[in-house]
Write a structure and sequence with these properties.
The chain is an alpha/beta fold. The chain has four helices and four strands; from the N terminus they run βαβααβαβ. Helices cover 41% and strands 19% of the residues.
Length: 96
């Protein structure tokens, strides 16, 4: 059986770097798609706490992460003790 892709949505709750309308649209489309996904209030906070969910995503196979700049997302995972692999991870920049 193929491993399902993990989808992670970051609401960027503690930094106003992503416009609220963009976050609403992205979250709405995820919900409407019916695909399973995880929504976290703030990826920065997960990294600061070294949340085990970061390692689950980093080591769990293909993943799509909707957050901010790809370089920042990779840095956050590394700072959280769970560096992302070079391949199999797609980072969607909601700031762009």
């Amino acid at each position: 059986m193929a491993h399902a892709e993990h989808i992670l949505y970051c609401h960027c709750a503690f930094a106003e770097v992503v416009p609220a309308e963009v976050k609403r649209r992205v979250l709405g489309r995820l919900v409407a798609s019916g695909a399973p996904f995880d929504a976290v209030p703030d990826l920065c906070a997960l990294a600061a706490r070294r949340d085990p969910r970061l390692r689950e995503i980093a080591e769990g196979g293909p993943a799509t992460i909707a957050a901010c700049h790809p370089r920042a997302v990779r840095w956050l995972f590394a700072a959280g003790g769970a560096p992302l692999p070079a391949e199999g991870i797609e980072i969607l920049d909601m700031r762009a």
